[in-house]
Amino acid sequence: MKVKKLKSDGQRSFAVVLETGEEAVENLLAFARAHDVTAASFTALGAFRDVKLGFFDIDKKDYQPIEIDDQVEVLTLVGNFAIQDGEARLHPHVIVSGRDGHAFGGHLLEGHVRPTLEVVVTDEPAHLRRRTDAETGLPLLVP
Q1: Which residues of 100-115 are buried (b: 16+ CB within 10 A; e: fewer)?
Q2: What is the pTM of this model?
Q3: What are 66-75's pLDDT values in tens digits?
Q4: Best exposed site among 37, 47, 86, 114 by fewest CB in 10 Å?
């Protein structure tokens, strides 16, 4: 993972570039911890060699996995960082496209980069918090 600070005048922004083989969720959380990111949004483009998406099953209160074991283009990856129980949390949603152009989307559970994932993070000078919702079990944003 390579990181470059782009701006730091009350609102920080970073370019985060993940390389072949790196796992996206794990590395984005490591970036947030290393740079004390507590309230941020991000967008990304690139590709994965394999990806696991999740569709939240409200009745089971768990993610139904959608696994794609093939090269896909990341058409868009968006999300945010917030703090829950003192730790950085990541909420990423992604749309990917296969070789035939069919798109799949959902919560990004895991994705291995190939060849790159280019992420732009905008960190706000505030703190966002998450709290576990009793009804769904999801860590929801508390404004």
Answers
A1: eeeebebbbbbbbbbe
A2: 0.89
A3: 999 999 999 9
A4: 86
